[in-house]
Amino acid sequence: MFQFVSKMISGEAHFSKLIRSVKPVLNNGEFVFCSFAEVGDINLNETVCFFREKEGVSVILPKKVADERQLKYSFIASWITLMVHSSLEAVGLTAAVSKALADENISCNVVAGYYHDHIFVARKDTERAIRILEAVSNGSSRRL
User: Fold this and answer.
1) C-alpha to C-alpha distance for 118 and 24, rounded to whole angstroms
2) Distance CA 81, CA 110 (A)
3) Rounded to an integer, what distance in angstroms lies between the CA atom of residue 108 and that of residue 119?
4) What percent helix, strand, coil does the chain show, rounded to 5?
5) Tens digit of pLDDT for each residue in 80-116?
6) Residue 140: helix, strand or coil by DSSP?
7) CATH 3.90.1010.20 is the classification of domain 15-137
8) Potential cystine with 13: which of 21, 87, 106, 119 (Cβ 3.0-4.6 Å)?
């Protein structure tokens, strides 16, 4: 059963304040994306995120969990949380972050939570991605 937060606080929507407050934080571990036919095949306590699509249920799991369950995956990611509490109605944060990473040839998969945006990047790109996101937050436009 889900517990709901009794007081919902809306996040920041002003782009210049958002971008200055990105503050990327690397979460510990390695993460993978898997797909299941049904939600019943998933232990929600083991997941980071799940999303129902027409083709099945996409799930982000710790790599350790996927390996223990012998699940198939092809992408091993690091999970970076942007510590700014962004509004779900904010315009431009996802575009600015993904463009900064794309300009450096880093693939990113973005998940928006109620409080924060979460960026999944290939493990090999973790350190560069953090530096790029810190540069975005500091207003640096130089290429890294």
Assistant:
1) 9
2) 10
3) 6
4) 30, 30, 40
5) 999 877 767 777 788 889 999 999 999 999 998 888 8
6) coil
7) no
8) 87
Q: Tell me the pTM.
A: 0.85
CB 15 within 8 A of CB 86: no
Distance spanning both ends of the chain, measured CA to CA: 45
Measured CA to CA, the distance from residue 144 to residue 139 in angstroms comes to 13
Kind and range of the H or E element at 52?
strand 49-53
- Which pair of tokens denotes residue 5? 């937060």
Three-class DSSP category at 32: strand
Dig out the tokens for 124 from the structure.
């090999």
Helices (H) and strands (E) counted in the chain, each on its own, are 4, 7
